[in-house]
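Let us practice reading a record.
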Amino acid sequence: MTEAIRAAVLIMSDKGARGEREDLSGPAITVKLQGLAEIVALEIIPDKKELIMDKLIDYADRLKVDIIFTSGGTGLAPRDVTPEATLAVCDRLVPGITDAMRLKSLEVTDRAMLSRAIAGTRGKTLIINLPGSPKAVKECLDVFIPVIGHAVETLRGEAYECSR
């Protein structure tokens, strides 16, 4: 890999955005990415589809980060709109990432099957929806981290031999 991985973290939480709840997922993501990626943006915003879309577009198109990790808003509640916002800004889906995360999470809790998280690309940026729970964030990142370097190299056009 020629350059360090640049990442952004976007937390969806109405209460967190209002300062009524401490966010623990953002710090959990930051800790898991230590030594793997430089976090260039970390924000907490309300669960509003248009706002989420604007932030994802800004991180991908203006900041040109390699990966955006979102946390929260992936469940069945009426205000959970993170997957819809992500889908609206992505060029291509990468279902294997969230399939693998859900499969592993099902070993821990049957509630994992209720996750609507998606992963996709916008240009050369990978966007991955993570759960809102700090514990689930760690578990899901444990699934993805082994392939983070190859994913970024491939998106950057630096990986030419993908077979093992």
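A brief commentary: The chain has one domain: 5-156.
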